[in-house]
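Section 5: illustrative case.
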């Protein structure tokens, strides 16, 4: 029998400890490198934090699998067994430029089914947490069930760059979406943006391209809070691939899909 209470206790302890080390790192200089392009950044703290999680998980749970952004985990090609999906720092650009607005993201799945999700806003000391079937919480307080919001009163997160430059969607429809809602925001951490949808601080989040570690925990949170999370064309998310992402309360999700996204001329 899997002891989920113990796994939850360990995950929370490791996240709190990693957060403390990251906060202390603010007074030291960072070592910054680039990955796939000059704006794809990684620091020694991303790598050290991932290594800390991997060492802790392997010591205590040697039969669990780990899918991590910095690649020190396992080559995960299937979701069989218990899989930890980890982004040690989601929002690395914010971490480097602002020392805020970034998060530790940990999602735990069993045979592809959501179990536990954590998004820890390190500088605000806010832990968003969800457990399958038990709801979503922020710092231990249960989140209110998600409220629907009419389009014209909705605050949604989108990234300005892909609103004006993308290969898949009719730009005029996206601009029309952005101007039909009450307001748009962009926080630069997908995990936090999904946590904000789960907690009602945002009514929607749309983005073109996220890796499993960017949304692995957020998917659990949004769904436990009563929201819907799919690709931008309404398809289920694939936890082993890059996906486009669209999260919102159910009725708003359906309306935006229908009115702005699901059009054959928009492509896939
Ligand atoms: P990161 O900071 O962990 O790299 C920025 O809008 C958000 O998108 C962040 O959550 C960032 O995660 C993620 N992101 C940035 N570039 C990405 C890429 N090429 N593929 C997938 N996710 C990306
Ligand atoms: Ca990251």
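Designed sequence:
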């Amino acid at each position: 029998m899997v002891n989920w209470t113990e796994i939850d206790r360990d995950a929370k302890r490791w996240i709190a400890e990693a957060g403390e080390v990251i906060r202390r790192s603010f007074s030291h200089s960072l070592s910054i490198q680039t990955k796939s392009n000059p704006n794809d950044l990684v620091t020694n703290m991303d790598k050290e934090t991932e290594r800390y999680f991997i060492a802790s998980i392997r010591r205590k749970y040697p039969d669990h699998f780990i899918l991590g952004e910095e690649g020190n985990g396992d080559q995960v090609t299937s979701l069989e067994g218990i899989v930890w999906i980890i982004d040690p720092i989601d929002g690395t650009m914010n971490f480097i430029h602002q020392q805020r607005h970034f998060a530790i993201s940990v999602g735990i799945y069993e045979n592809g089914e959501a179990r536990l999700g954590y998004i820890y806003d390190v500088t605000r000391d806010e832990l968003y947490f969800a457990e399958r079937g038990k709801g979503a919480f922020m710092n231990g307080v249960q989140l209110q069930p998600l409220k629907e919001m009419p389009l014209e009163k909705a605050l949604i997160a989108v990234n300005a760059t892909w609103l004006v430059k993308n290969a898949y969607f009719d730009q005029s429809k996206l601009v029309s979406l952005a101007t039909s809602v009450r307001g748009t925001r962009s926080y630069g951490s997908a995990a936090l943006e999904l946590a904000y949808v789960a907690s009602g601080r945002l009514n929607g989040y749309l983005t073109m391209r996220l890796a499993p570690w960017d949304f692995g925990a957020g998917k659990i949170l949004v769904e436990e809070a009563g929201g819907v999370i799919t690709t931008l064309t309404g398809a289920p998310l694939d936890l082993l691939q890059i996906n486009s992402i669209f999260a919102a309360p159910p009725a708003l999700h359906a309306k935006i899909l229908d009115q702005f996204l699901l059009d054959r001329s928009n492509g896939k």
